Amino acid sequence: MNPALVSARARGLTPYTPGEQPQDKTYIKLNTNENPYPPAPAVQTQLRESIAEELRLYPDPNSTQLREALAGHYQLTPEEVFVGNGSDEVLSFAFYAFFDPHNGPVLFPAHTYSFYPVYCTYYGLEYRKIPMGEDFSVRLSGFSEQDTFSGVIFPNPNAPTGIAISREQIAAFLGSARSDRVYVIDEAYVDFGAESCSGLVREFPNLLVVHTFSKSRSLAGLRLGFALGNPELIATLFTVKDSFNSYPLNRLSQQLALRALENKSYYEKMQEKIIETRERTVDRLRTRGWNVLPSSANFIFASAPGIDGGTLYSDLKQRGILVRHFNHTGIKEFVRITIGTDEQMDRLLADLDALYSK
Predict the structure, then answer these.
(1) 190 with 79, same domain?
(2) Tell me: the pLDDT tens digits for 143-171?
(3) Which of 134, 183, 219, 303 is paired with 257 by a 20 to 30 Å CA distance?
(4) What is the C-alpha separation between 318 and 186, in angstroms, rounded?
(5) Are 185 and 206 within 8 A, CB to CB?
(6) Do 77 and 194 reside in the same domain of the chain?
(7) CB atoms inside a 10 Å sphere around CB 173
(8) Cβ partners under 8 Å of residue 125, min gap 6
(9) Could you tell me the CATH number of the domain that includes residue 328?
(10) What Cα–Cα distance (Å) separates residue 48 from each residue in 255, 267, 316?
(11) How sure is the predictor about 46, in pLDDT bands with cuts at 50, 70 and 90?
């Protein structure tokens, strides 16, 4: 293509690479942190009964009913809730709304969600990766040591490590942090054993907490995320959204999300099931000599003695099992393994034994 036809901004982009979705054969997919269990039965019923006639009508641009339901779930008001097409879209709006390139770099951990630097490049933001502890923990003090920055973002639990920070630690950090910068906590995996900071958004008006329906609510294919925060932050997100697309969340997504919120007990049972499978898998890998980081997510970050992470990934893929490998300095020896069903994890361990127990 003629370079003159493409903007300099577009030529400078390196897009985010999602977990692969190969079509050549059937795989056990343990690479994209999808929930191995289906949505609640009521969600499936709603999907079957949704009236196609309504699809000719535009959806509520403000997702009013859904925001009211989310507000009730998190003991907030609808004015403290924003919804969008997946947490990735919500995060993108947050980068645009709250991180000003004139104020300095965006701060995030050295090893974290690889979409963050992509957003920064997209919006013309500098960024700085903050060194982590030797145990791969996120050092909140590392953010405090920076004098000039436009904002802070980190997942809790962190990805790809799965390590969580307590709500008490985060509250103490926010209490001493600059009040003229926004702090975004990405809680995509919080329901699998970590403490949510949603209850802190009234105490700290510069805190934005982002969630998704993709993981703990088994709706990755729906693309629905939301943010909780001070009404002024939420209003700013709506300004950004309405300047991009005034109808971001379709009718069906809003209906299905409402059904999911009404079935809290079902999802809590599924979360407990995944946590039990995770802990059993961690124990079994450690007895085989693996280094497995402590996880509060629906995945684990693990390395095998004497085996490169890329080799683990390739060997397992040949046997029909997908895991995720990040070819980044400092974590190349690890693979990230999504927690599947007990049967899927049994198959994983059996194949590992077949490959390496010789």
Answers:
(1) yes
(2) 999 999 999 999 999 999 999 999 999 99
(3) 183
(4) 33
(5) no
(6) yes
(7) 17
(8) 95, 99, 101, 105, 106, 119, 150
(9) 3.90.1150.10
(10) 12, 20, 37
(11) confident
Q: What is the pLDDT of residues 68-118, one digit of tens each?
A: 999 999 999 999 999 999 999 999 999 999 999 999 999 999 999 999 999
Same domain (yes/no): 211, 303: no
Written as six digits, the tokens of 17 are 């690479």
pLDDT at residue 25 in the model: 67
Which structural domain, as residue segments, surrounds residue 287? 17-38+265-356
Residues 283 and 239 in one domain: no
Strands 127-130 and 106-109 turn out to be parallel
The HSE-up count of residue 97 (CA atoms within 13 Å, CB side) is 25
d(CA 323, CA 321): 7
φ, ψ for residue 110, nearest 5 deg: -60, -40
Instruction: Report DSSP letters for 88-113, one per residue.
Output: HHHHHHHHHHH--GGG--EEEESSS-
For residue 27, the one-letter residue type is: Y
**324 in Cβ contact with 336 (< 8 Å):** yes
* Total number of domains constituting the chain: 2
Structure tokens at 61: 């641009």
Query: What residues form DSSP beta bridges with 151?
Result: 106, 182
User: What CA–CA distance (Å, rounded) separates 222 from 229?
Assistant: 23
- Residues 6 or more apart whose CB falls under 8 angstroms from that of 248 comprise 61, 83, 84, 85, 89, 241
In a domain, 6, yes or no: no
pLDDT band at 358 (very low <50, low <70, confident <90, very high): low
Q: What percent of the chain has pLDDT over 90?
A: 86
The answer to whether residues 75 and 28 belong to one domain is: no
Residues 115 and 228 in one domain: yes
